[in-house]
Amino acid sequence: MSVRQRKFAVLLQRLLLLIVLVHVITGFFVDRPYPSWLGLVPVGGFVALSIVLGQAARRDRSRREPPAPLEIAPPVTGRWSAVNSPADKVPSHGTHGLGQTYAIDIVAEPQDGARPAFAWLWPIARGNKAFPAFGAPLLAVADATVVHAEDAQRDHLSRNSLLAYVYLVVAEGLGRTLGGARRVVGNHITLDLGEGTYAVYAHVQQGSLAVRTGDKVRAGQVMARCGNSGNSTEPHVHFQLMDGPDLDTARGVPFRWRGIGVPANGETFTVREEAAPVP
């Protein structure tokens, strides 16, 4: 399946999902002017497209040799812990979609216990400033060109309690899926590292951009700050490499952070400021 065909299929998939939702919601308020079984048509189309896209992705991966991990600089300094790491499973986030095959999430842990733990009942949500990752500088991992940068989406409250997480998955997650990739990743920066490789920083803090599209950046340069925008449970850094700039059609690329490697889930690592490259 070509890139153009994948793009069209993804857009059609979202349209069918929207039609299904409209069909379900309007059924509570009005009598539909068509047989109810017609509502199953977009459902069947959505399922069929999902199967086709999945099979095409599997065929594509089976034909390609896994690329060697690209060594780059870390995107942060300080003490952090890894979550959803490709060191433990691939795809790391349970999907190859949006170029996330080798994506990683990291949360700031300046010292043990500094980051609020998951709450089963209370508090339902916390302010972002309760999390040490919020506002942490995001650094360029290599000399690169900014091909996309946005920071207008809001930073929402945390979703790290049981009720808030259910809300995130059922309500917010569905809405953001319909809104497209940029609503899922939130504010984000995409860098062109050269030779067909692109880096993405997701969930960037609202109003924190220090770069704009077209800028040249140097490794270690501060580009923005860690936030909690998009489909995020708490302030954290979501980082990934891809083989193209379009989240809908790009495929994930493996990486290693210089001096660190790929930290496993729960592994704590420290990047000292003097170890980060300075422009």
Report the count of strand segments: 13
Q: What's the level 1 CATH class of the largest domain?
A: Mainly Beta
What percentage of amino acids are in beta strands?
15-25%
The largest β sheet comes out as: 9 strands, antiparallel
- What is the average per-residue confidence, as pLDDT, rounded to a whole number? 86
What's the CATH topology label of the largest domain?
Answer: Glucose Permease (Domain IIA)
Helix content: 25-40%
Secondary-structure-based class equals alpha+beta
Number of helical segments with 4 or more residues: 4
- Named at the architecture level, the CATH assignment of the largest domain is Distorted Sandwich
The named CATH superfamily of the largest domain? Glucose Permease (Domain IIA)
Q: Could you spell the SSE succession in H and E letters?
A: HHEEEEEHHEEEEEEEE
Over the alpha carbons, how many angstroms does the gyration radius reach?
20 Å
* N- and C-termini, Cα separation: 41 Å
Low-confidence stretches: none
Which outline best applies?
globular
- The domain count comes to 2
Please describe what this structure looks like.
It is built from 4 helices and 13 strands. The protein is α+β, with helices and mostly antiparallel strands. The protein has 2 domains: 3-63; 70-275, Glucose Permease (Domain IIA) (Distorted Sandwich), CATH 2.70.70. α1 runs antiparallel to α2. The chain is globular. The termini are far apart.
How do you describe this structure in short?
The protein has 279 residues and is of the alpha+beta class.
